[in-house]
Amino acid sequence: MKRITPRDVGRRVSVRRELPPEDAEASYSDVVGDLVDWRDGVLTITRRDGSIARVAEASIVAAKVVPPPVRRLTPARLQDVASRSWPAPEVAAFGEWLLRAAGGFTRRANSVLVLGEPDMPFPEALDRVNAWYSARDLPTLFQVAHEDPFDRFLDAAGWLAEGDALMRTGRLVRAADVLRDVDAGRVEIGTALTDEWVSLYHRVARHAGGAERHVLQGPPGTLFATVSDPESGRPVAIGRVCVLGRYAGFAGLEVDPAHRRRGHARAIVKALTDRALAGGAVTGWLQVESDNRAARELYDALGYTDHHGYHYRRSPGAT
Q: Where does the N-acetyltransferase domain lie (predicted)?
């Protein structure tokens, strides 16, 4: 007997389903995970490993809500997901550091992501990292979480902090519920990065090295949203989401100044949130500069909260 309903979307469930008669190995199969969607008689469940199961309602013989597992999403784990969603063309592992280079396009893609310890003492590791970036004609930058031991080492060595930012997370089902009455019919979504989308992204306007398209296109699971002016056809609002298993990263939300306060940003976030849920994601995340009040307020309303803070460290002699 089923003990779950569509109102349980967003909760963790255990479902037993009857398998087709041609499956000779077993009569039933169990699925445990987050119920992220239930429509047209099909349940979409995201397992703990990020895989997705779609279960026909008619095949269910038993189901129940189960307690969520004890799970802590560490800053290092979330930053690793974020780095894979914003991939630099060149990445080198150095112990638990990731050295990234993208011709100078964004600090995220041109910095050392500190996820743990290098495989040698800090002073020697610094020399090796400096040489790696010098060979690419790039300054050495570290992306490091607040309170990380290496951040304290850099601070004591005189490395300058810049680009203070927040990693924020939220439950996608809660955001979708808040946005349920928003009309997203104006939003077009595609899997390919287009010239029209790029034309509105302000960071590209400051960069012409060519690596930006590699970074922005991202891995499979990246979607691009566009709202176009009905008269001129040119884009007036854009957004991007990258779905990696259970996680969906939102970025690139831009609205032309002449078209603000018309609900375009919320429409884009709704459209991308719905697609992320349909793709099996459970948790949304975004990286936002600490002083970006508008972005923080938008996602505050959707239930997002601060996960951790981070910043970049630059050598005092770098330009």
A: 177-319
